[in-house]
Design goal:
Elements (H helix, E strand, L loop, with lengths): L1 H20 L35 H9 L2 E5 L2 E6 L33 H7 L6 E4 L6 E7 L2 H16 L5 E8 L6 E11 L8 E5 L4 H5 L3 E13 L5 E8 L6 H8 L15 E4 L2 E5 L14 H6 L14 E8 L9 E4 L4 H9 L19 E7 L5
């Protein structure tokens, strides 16, 4: 009896081992059912972490070739990415090198692209005529020679003479402006408080003729309108036309006059704050106006950014369009438009901002916060 039991056990053991050995050869092997994909556990990079997604200079150049948005008669329009300079800055040790917040930031510049771009577009060479600053994306103008550059400069002067603001920016602001649209003629000037190392730009509504003659002010003509508001009126897509970009004029206007800083702006992002339940402009001559901005938790939740990582939020300001009236010849009006980059579209989508249908009305000042347009000149601790 004992021998029979041993033979049965050995036979079953051999069968089990044999089946296990050849299981991988079965056309449809059996696996335990699991609806979860093991790859789902891998953390996908946030869209803000893929702004500089070039692994080499060659890949960067190839990508820039795809960003050509206009090419005619020696004038080339390029959609410049966020965080890219026109050329390499000097290695001045006194230059402020504060961290940009860009994940895997590269040091490539537009100048690196010009030789290959000229070759691909059949030009002997290309030069940079107009480009947004490093932390603004959008339309960049390149020219094949001095004639094209002179033509662009002349077109911009024609626009100024006709009181046309040729540059149109799209910005995403924290909070919603009190008015759906507006037009203002302002001026900027520098104030030099004793306890600050650098002068502080401010916007003024009144100025004297002597100040302008001495070059102490810079005229700032502004037109703006709300294109769309986010869910719960947390943010807005605001179109801004500005006659100058000196001293980051668009950021300064949004924060100081609209009381709606641009999302991701760490230069003027604290110029307006909610204090004791009221939205106010902070005196730019005190430290409270220059601390890192505090982003609203509701916005951070929607864009899926934790507060300790909010420095990777890019400044949401994009040069959407440039208008060149009578370029090279009369009535030859040229308009160059640059599409939004994926990170910008991601923010619009997460905040549920509709860009196709304008908002029916502006935010009610009592809906979220009480808007107080008076400037606070007292220290806010």
């Amino acid at each position: 009896m004992e021998c029979i039991i041993k033979r049965i056990v050995n036979k079953r053991t051999i069968c089990l081992l044999t089946n296990t050995r050849y299981a991988h050869t079965n056309p449809e092997p059996y696996y335990r059912k699991n609806n979860k994909n093991i790859l789902d556990k891998e953390k996908k990079p946030h869209p803000y972490g893929k702004i500089h997604n070039w692994r080499s200079k060659q890949i960067f150049i190839e990508d820039m070739l795809k960003q050509v948005i206009y090419n005619k008669d020696g004038l080339v329009g390029l959609n410049k990415p966020y965080g890219i300079s026109a050329r390499t800055l000097d290695d001045n040790p006194n230059r402020n090198k504060s961290p940009s917040g860009i994940v895997h930031e590269v040091s490539y510049t537009l100048s690196d692209v010009l030789p290959m771009l000229a070759k691909e577009l059949n030009y002997e060479s290309l030069r940079i005529i107009r480009t947004p600053e490093k932390f603004t994306s959008g339309v960049t103008l390149l020219g094949s020679d001095e004639k094209i550059e002179a033509g662009v400069v002349k077109s911009l002067r024609i626009a100024e003479a006709d009181r046309i603001i040729p540059r149109t920016y799209w910005t995403i602001t924290r909070r919603v402006p009190g008015q759906p649209q507006g037009e203002k003629r302002l001026a900027m000037k520098l104030k030099r408080p004793e306890h600050f190392k650098r002068p502080v730009p401010v916007i003024v509504e009144k100025w004297g003729s002597n100040e302008r003659e001495r070059g102490e002010i810079k005229i700032l003509n502004i037109q703006y309108k709300i294109i769309g508001n986010s869910t719960h009126n947390l943010a807005s897509l605001v179109e801004i036309k500005s006659s100058t970009t000196q001293w980051h004029a668009i950021r300064l206007f949004a924060a100081s006059n609209l009381l709606c800083p641009i999302l991701g702006d760490r230069i003027y992002g604290s110029r307006s704050q909610i204090v004791l339940g009221k939205l106010i402009e902070i005196n730019p001559l005190i430290e409270a106006a220059h601390v890192p901005p505090k982003n609203e938790k509701e916005i951070l939740d929607l864009i899926k950014i934790q507060s300790y990582r909010d420095t990777i939020i890019p400044a949401h300001i994009h040069l959407k369009e440039i208008y060149l009236p009578s370029f090279l010849k009369k009535d030859n009006n040229v308009t160059i438009k640059a599409p939004l980059f994926p990170y910008f579209e991601y923010t619009l989508d997460r905040l549920r901002i509709d860009t196709k249908s304008p908002p029916s009305s502006s935010i009610d000042s009592n809906e979220n916060v009480t808007v107080n347009e008076d400037v606070v000149n007292k220290n806010v601790q």
